[in-house]
Amino acid sequence: MAANPVNRYALTFSFRATSRRTSSNSRPSLLDWASSRPHASVRYFTADEDYPVPKHTTTINAVEDLRLEQKRSISTAELDKYRDTRERIVILGSGWAGYTLSREIDHKKYQVVIVSPRSYFVFTPLLASTSVGTLEFRTAVEPIRSRRNQTSFIQGWAEDVDLFNKTVTIEEAVSDPRQGLAQTAARDAGKNAEQLQTETEHKIRSGQMFDLKYDKLIIAVGCYNQTYNIKGVKEHANFLKDVGDARAIRKRLLECFETAALPTTPDDVRRQILHFAVVGGGPTGIEFAAELHDLIHEDMKRIYPGLVRFTRITIYDVSPNVLSQFDGKLASFAAEHFARRGIEIKTSRAIQELSPGLPFVDGNLRSSRLGFTLKVKGEIDEGVGMCIWSTGLMMNPFIQKALSTIRRFPPNEVIFKDKVEDALQLQWHIMQDPKTGAIVTNDRLRVLITPDGPHGPMKAHLRDVFAIGDCSVIEGKLYPATAQVANQKARWLAKRLNKNDLYGETSRFRFRNLGIMAYLGSAKAIFEGGKGVGNISGRTAWLIWRVMQMVRTRSLGTNTFKGRLSGKEYFMA
Asked: Which Pfam family name is an example for this entry (predicted)?
């Protein structure tokens, strides 16, 4: 039986989910339906059986034991031993593109190895729901390793690619504290060349860095969260791209309400620490604001009845409109729905800084532990208890670091589109989108390269190197950076590799728009269908949204039913 409010109230800061357990074997793949939203996406968290992330500990022996236990990645020699005559496909990344490809590939033809610092796949459409307790965390993840999956896995960061020798340099990441959290900057940011060289030599000697050979390389490293170098965002904002981010948000929500509930907290401070700012008016930010409003007005009002009147949710966006990916009528429906519910939308707003501590209240500067100050251009400073940052994507630094310049490549590994004299004497580089920095591929998803200097518009593509997901774009195409596109690219590439017909004239990737949707709260949603489907809004769209989730996660229907009976699982006892 669920704990009563008083008991759950007392267990707020224990943080280990106990209710709504379901068998891990009953959960099917989450990949049959790909979300049509940009990848949603700050602090280290303690793991439990809800998802496969190493548990934090402070004793040296425990850390070493854990590393040995978690380091189940078989050695490269053993990989070679069990390879037989199969080609080896190395996939960099365990997101929508990389994980989908690993599931769809024919393991009788190929030995598949995923290299990723994260040992699980995240079903990003469910992160907003898990962050407020509608769903438990494990409904949003699937482990890379499983009895059903023949994919080999190496938990590490890809550091470099040697196209001539067809190897990837990997740095192990078994005990890396950054796993499970949104990434906002390069791991070696701020270090000079001498420091990097010294660290690299040490890692090679200690076995932390090693090479892995490949026959075919799939680059699916995804993107980082974009912060636009706004002061204080990396340090103080919450993101929503991984399970650790969702857990950090849930923890911070509870801290805000518990602080506001203290008898020593004055009302003017309560109004600020219960003010929740969402920066970014895309589907991720909109859905989180909707889920948060549901939590406050359906559950928190029973636990903290005297505090709901102090709560406020504000959405900020630099664009003139929110939900710009949707048809204008649907976006207007969403804005009007939010206005009726008291969620304020401020468009054409530029955030300048997020700093610790509340702004001046009655002449006194409040303690920095209570909240943050959000500086908006042209407006007075706003005190907030939490700032959710969801403003878009930044290209993964790995692309520029490891792939921008090609040192050497075997002539038989490159297919030249144009006649090139003395091609091997030229310095080539990976083609990148000038706006986003993404890898440019052809319509068969092979990576394109072009020579440096004044050699004209010469192009070639790498025979066995592909790029899929957010880190890549197809030349001449403007597909959105969504999980739906990543999923379709992965499925298409797996099918072509399985059939070995990538060279056929008819085998070119074509994106099929299956529609996009967003939850608006209070059992309302918007749905913009693909070709010939049309637009739907309100409760009917919400039913479509809910059914899409229920049929893809077998436990979701049970969790939703329990949520209606006992409230959201926002207390992690």
From this structure: Pyr_redox_2
Closest CA to 129 of 311, 288, 343: 288
CA distance 118 to 176: 10
Cβ-contact 23, 112 below 8 angstroms: no
Please name every residue paired with 218 in a beta bridge, in sequence order, or none if there are none.
91, 466
Angle CA(267)–CA(270)–CA(275) in degrees, nearest 5?
Answer: 135
Inform me whether the pLDDT recorded for 54 exceeds 90: no
Task: Evaluate whether 383 touches 372 at the Cβ level (below 8 Å).
Answer: yes
Give the whole-number percent of the chain exceeding pLDDT 70. Answer: 75
Helical packing angle, 283-295 and 328-341, nearest 10°: 30
φ/ψ of residue 451, rounded to 5 = -80, 155
- 3-state SS string for 314-342: EEECCCCCCCCCCCHHHHHHHHHHHHHHC
For residue 416, give every residue at least 6 positions away whose Cβ sits within 8 Å of its Cβ, in sequence order, or none: 423, 458, 459, 460
Summarised one tens digit per residue, pLDDT across range 178-216 is 777 778 777 666 666 666 667 766 665 555 889 999 999
The reply to whether domains 50-224 and 233-392 share a CATH topology is yes
Burial category of 351 from C-beta neighbours within 10 Å (exposed 0-12, middle 13-18, buried 19 and up): buried
Q: Which two tokens stand for residue 220?
A: 């699916």
Q: So what's the pLDDT on residue 188? A: 67
What CATH number labels 50-224? 3.50.50
Q: What's the confidence (pLDDT) of residue 361?
A: 62
**Contacts of residue 441, Cβ cutoff 8 Å, sequence gap at least 6:** 447, 448, 461, 466, 467, 472, 473, 474, 475
Angle at 190 between CA 92 and CA 171, to 5 degrees: 30
Give the helix, strand, coil percentages of the chain, each rounded to 5.
Answer: 30, 25, 45
CATH code for 233-392?
A: 3.50.50.100
Give the SS3 label for residue 439.
strand
Q: How far apart are the first and last CA of the chain?
A: 13
Contacts for 335 with CB less than 8 Å, ≥ 6 apart? 321, 322, 345
Count of other CB atoms within 10 angstroms of residue 537: 21
332 vs 367, which has greater pLDDT? Answer: 332
Domain positions in the chain are 50-224, 233-392, 394-499
Predicted pLDDT of residue 233: 97
Q: Is the pLDDT of residue 369 over 70?
A: no
Does the pTM exceed 0.90?
Answer: no
User: Is 173 a residue whose pLDDT tops 80?
Assistant: yes
The answer to whether 43 and 249 are in contact (CB under 8 A) is no
Which residues fall within 8 angstroms of residue 49, CB to CB, at 6 or more apart?
138
Reference 221, options 102, 116, 89, 125; nearest CA is 116
pLDDT digits (tens, 9 = 90+) for 385-443: 999 999 989 999 999 888 877 877 777 888 887 666 677 777 888 999 999 999 999 99
Q: How many CB atoms lie within 10 A of CB 309?
A: 12
Is the pLDDT at 34 greater than 50? The verdict is no
